[in-house]
């Protein structure tokens, strides 16, 4: 009898966890954001910093001038060398982020290996732009 009660309590707890999970985006939405992030990263990886700025979210372009972006990203990425590998580590849908306007975002983290930095964590944050397309609004390497 005690074993049945423990199983019932465990099932009740499990069902409660399922009911109270945070709201997440559907998989198609996350895939769209990841495709946008990967396309944008390909520009950065190729040293096409000007094009990466052109293809970033309006919010990004309003916050960072093109010349400033080109100088900053070159100073960060060139010393690292070429990308050897990049693996999706995590993705998190959000509608609010600190210091950013409310909207739709997917915070994506990649475990990345560069020629001269074997273990790095890249964080790329695409947002749904006003035209409905996903574009990168933030990029950070640690």
Features:
alpha+beta; four-stranded antiparallel beta sheet; 142 residues
What does this structure look like?
A four-stranded antiparallel β-sheet has the order 1-2-3-4. By secondary structure, it is an alpha+beta fold. The N terminus is likely disordered. The chain contains five helices and four strands, in the order αααααββββ. The longest helix is centred in the first third of the chain and has 19 residues.
Kindly summarize this structure in a few lines.
With 142 residues, the protein is an alpha+beta fold.
Q: Regions with pLDDT < 50 over 5+ consecutive residues?
A: 1-23
CA radius of gyration? 20 Å
Query: How would you describe the shape?
Result: globular
- Mean pLDDT comes to 86
Profile the largest sheet: 4 strands, antiparallel
**Side-by-side strand order of the widest sheet:** 1-2-3-4
- Report how far the terminal alpha carbons are from each other: 54 Å
Number of strands: 4
Structural class: alpha+beta
Q: Report the total helices.
A: 5
Helical fraction = 40-55%
Estimate the strand proportion. Answer: 25-35%
The H/E string reads HHHHHEEEE
């Amino acid at each position: 009898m005690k074993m049945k009660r423990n199983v019932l309590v465990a099932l009740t707890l499990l069902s409660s966890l399922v009911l109270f999970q945070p709201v997440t985006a559907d998989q198609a939405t996350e895939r769209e954001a990841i495709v946008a992030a990967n396309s944008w990263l390909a520009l950065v990886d190729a040293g096409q910093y000007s094009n990466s700025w052109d293809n970033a979210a309006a919010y990004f372009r309003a916050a960072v001038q093109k010349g400033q972006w080109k100088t900053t990203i070159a100073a960060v990425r060139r010393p690292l060398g070429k990308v050897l590998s990049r693996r999706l580590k995590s993705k998190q849908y959000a509608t609010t982020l600190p210091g950013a306007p409310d909207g739709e975002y997917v915070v994506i983290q990649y475990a990345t290996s560069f020629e001269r930095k074997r273990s790095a964590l890249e964080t790329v944050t695409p947002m749904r732009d006003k035209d409905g397309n996903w574009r990168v609004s933030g990029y950070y390497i640690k």
